[in-house]
Amino acid sequence: MPARGRMKLLGAVLLAAGLLGTAARGEQPPWPDEPSRTCFFQMLTSVDSEFCRGDLEIIYPELGDVGCTYIPKCHQYRRRISREWGSPRVRYPQAEKSKKYVLVLVDPDAPSRANPRNRFWRHWLVTDIPGADLRTGAIKGHVLTDYVRPTPPPRSGYHRYQLRLYEQPAHEAVALSPEERVSLGAWAMESFVERFQLGSPVASTQFLTKYYED
Questions:
Q1: Predicted confidence (pLDDT) per residue in 56-76, tens digit
Q2: HEC sequence for the chain
Q3: Contact present, 129 and 99 (Cβ < 8 Å)
């Protein structure tokens, strides 16, 4: 079993012990909305899982690394990720200590996946992150957009929250334009990446969640 798989399995076991429930990652888990006292974690499948590349970890309290999973409704996790918890820890063990990185968190499904007219909604943007910080998960850098909690609108279905990590070109000052700073929605992320020659992400991951009362 790959290291990432072992860590996720261990996280599920520890969570179950702490909450007197059962965390399961079976091959055929129930749909994440199934009402139950048991807390199931369902991994993403098909196209959505293909986005997860490079062992990038996004870590929230109690849940651990939520990369490539649905956020379960049990224990009010969807409400807490939308209303309570602050920015997650982000860890990338393969980061090079001598390099700096750019971190981007977006929702490509605003206001819904069926009608993403406000794609991409910018939820977090940090530049100049030292590789040494990414290796430990305690990132520091220049915050261009403060962390905005995932808040899918009611009855809009599941939203993807995508985390991309780019290697920042040496001596390149990355900044938002005055027009980009005005709004978080309908952000031309691809143009931003091209403007600063960030290239393809060195790693990426995502999780899916929806309005906590749906």
A1: 999 999 999 999 999 999 999
A2: CCHHHHHHHHHHHHHHHHHCCCCCCCCCCCCCCCCCCCCCCCECCHHHHHCCECCCEEEECCCEECCCEECCCHHHHHHHHHHCCCCCEEECCCCCCCCEEEEEEEECCCCCCCCCCCCCEEEEEEEEEEHHHHHHCCCCCEEEECCCCCCCCCCCCCEEEEEEEEECCCCCCCCCCHHHHHCCCCCCHHHHHHHCCCCCCCEEEEEEECCCCC
A3: no
Half-sphere exposure in the Cβ direction for 182 (13 Å, CA): 5
> How distant, in Å, are the alpha carbons of 50, 116, 188 from that of 173?
31, 30, 18
Per-residue tokens: 85: 């918890």
Query: Two tokens at 132?
Result: 């040494």
CB 150 within 8 A of CB 81: yes
What's the rounded Cα separation, in Å, for the pair 21 and 24?
10
Residues 168-202: tens digit of each pLDDT: 999 889 999 999 999 999 999 999 999 999 999 99
Q: What is each CA distance from 209 to 42, 76, 80, 107, 183, in whole angstroms?
A: 11, 12, 12, 11, 23
Q: What are phi and psi of 25, to 5 degrees?
A: -130, 55
User: Which residue, among 82, 115, 113, has the nearest Cα to 213 in the 3D structure?
Assistant: 82
